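Worked example 2:
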Amino acid sequence: MLSSVICAARTIRHTELTKKSPRGAGKHTGGNVRLIFAWGAVGAPALVFALLGSSFAQPMAPVGQAFVRPNVAAVRIDPSEAPTIDGDVSDAVWAKANVIDRFIQKSPNPGQPATERTVVRILYDANNLYFSFYNYDANPDRIIVRSMQRDGPLFTADSVAIYLDPGQTRRNAYNFEIGASGGRTDQLELNNTEELREWDTIWEARSRRVADGWTAEFAIPFRSLSYDTNQTTWGFDVSRRVRHKNERLYWSGFSPNLEFTDVSQSGDLTGISNVTQGLGLDVQVYGKLGGKHDWGVPGDGADLAFTVGGNAFYKVTPALTNTLTINTDFSDAPLDVRQVNTTRFSLFTPETRDFFLQDIAAFEFGGRNFGRNSQDRVSNNGRPFFSRNIGISGGQPVNIVVGDKLSGQLGGFDIGALSVLTADTPTSSRECVQPLNELTRCGELLSVLRVTHPVLSESKVGFIVTNGDPSGLTENTVAGIDLQYRNSDFFGRYILQGDAYYQRSFSNTFGEDDSAAVSLNFPNEPWFGDFVFKQIGTDFTPALGFVNRTSIRQYTGTVSHLARYRNTYLNQFEIGTNFEYVTDLDDRLESRVNDVYVRLVSAIGDEVTARIINTYENVPALFFLPRKVPVLPGRYEWNSVAVRVRTFDGRQLRLDSEVTCCGFFDGTSLRTRVILAYRPNAYFEFIPTYDGTFIRMPSGNVDIHLFSVDSVINFTPDMQIAMQLQYDNISANFGFSARYRWEYEPGNEIFIGVAQAAIIPGLVPRYTFIPRMTQVSLRLGHTFRF
């Protein structure tokens, strides 16, 4: 069946593509583009559905009934009655609590009752929210226990989670989760599309195994959340993973087609009043002893320094927090994901530093025009604000001297404001240091302001302004407005989303130019649709944002059909097509990617995806692949096939592998990516990754090898060593990082970090290890709450 579709693709390739010159620069006709696009967007899904759809039993009926929002009241207790957070739910005070025990499956059988009983109780006092979970399991010996790492991969094991949306935004929420192992994570759900796992705050939770399942207790301080204390009703949900059955259970039982990051159909938590956030002041102080050795400096390249810094968080109002940072330390940030660029455009690397991730929802702009995937270079093109630009100049780290951030709600408006003063950065825009005839250096003041206001029942409007250039080379300002629309009662039972923005940049070097976008999203079952139109002007230059391709109009979209089956081997069957058109501002085609895919998922969670991809590129000027392999100007079109296999997350050994072959400009390319995750128990994790690309072109060949190993040793849920090792043969850069962290009390920790950078010119067995930089740091941190 799949071979028939591939043959159809090959037939189109041979009959529709025009002849290429000896150099591979072929001539492309618009009629061929339209024919191939029409085949991909309409004919191929119909063909695949006809071939596969009749092969299985009738699918489950789509879950489309009207949504009814549940609610529960939290019961107030005196602080002297507060339960001990140790995972033992036998404290007598829990008998006072209201109970949640009706859970619905989101997967694998949406809308069906949970097969295992879960009992949740909710209490609060003046200081904290308390939750207890009794997670019954008829087969307790099959409970999956994996990582106990702080902020580790709890999705691989049995766990429970709490979603809190104090402002009832129905778009953003705090997420607190604990596993049967005792491992904890906290994260932010942003704009119903993205999960920010790097966010951290102070809270407590413990779990323990019992004869008929496992239990857990939470204590979440009100002072750890930013919200208006007059808000007595919160958006709220609880969920549970029964991993050995691959069940994902929710109290609210929202639509299965919504992403797990979507909190628009969460329930309500009522009755929270007369609580305290203390003085609203948290002070984090750290002392750091850091040593480094630059092996490239002749003689003595060693340096030892002691620094003191910290952060102060003050609640100007209960819902508005001011954050001051001095001598910000980023030594605990993980290594960036290693990437090698085989395109004409720069790559996007997401933010990982805690200071910028805290309250990042306040700075979100443009909705789904940017929020589809943090690693997606297309959807992030044109971002007005990208915090990773702060503290980095010319690819090199720059110290942050002081920064101030204001985030929260005031007078019905959501506010995010940030100003940062960086240390000296190279600049040619003005002289800051004498004498002349030397490279002048000066710090940069970088600022952003984001304000939104709710409109209608689920939507918002807002504006953003940024000012400053991290490089110091220009004077730059960006201003933009946006609308984010949502209707979860479209035709009584469907969800419809729409986002639009307009931005304009002002630069003393590039002048003025603009960018605009509009998107529509229909996230429903069985049919799903998504469309984005974006235009970026020639001189649109957001110095504090991200842009990697200008002078374009971009059209991207997805149409898919999902059928669900109550079958062990086939639980989900999805067919669809993705398309992307990029033209210049005169509507001349520059790029096109069109694919057709089939995705099969078993009840336990094993997954296979096959894609047929047709690509067109009009290369206006010579550019180089790695190893200086040239791609000549011209028009290119090629076909490729991709197959991805992902096994169930809950297994001790998990495989995620993808192979893409074979077309690539006027040559061929074979890409293989293999990730093995070995998690034998809660104490150990080992994840090697290999990403290899083998390109064969008339102008030359290049083999790209990327290796990485991530490993974790967990001593307790609050003490672990995380290690990373990375290497790629193109830059020959080797990186190693080891980070020991012990949070001996909530908010108080000891951190030890070791990092090594080196050059390894060749692969084994012939290799030379050339050290470049060695760094060691010891940091003691303490949080004072007032």
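The CA atoms of residues 252 and 339 lie 40 Å apart. Residues 71-270 form a domain with the Immunoglobulin-like fold (CATH 2.60.40.1190).
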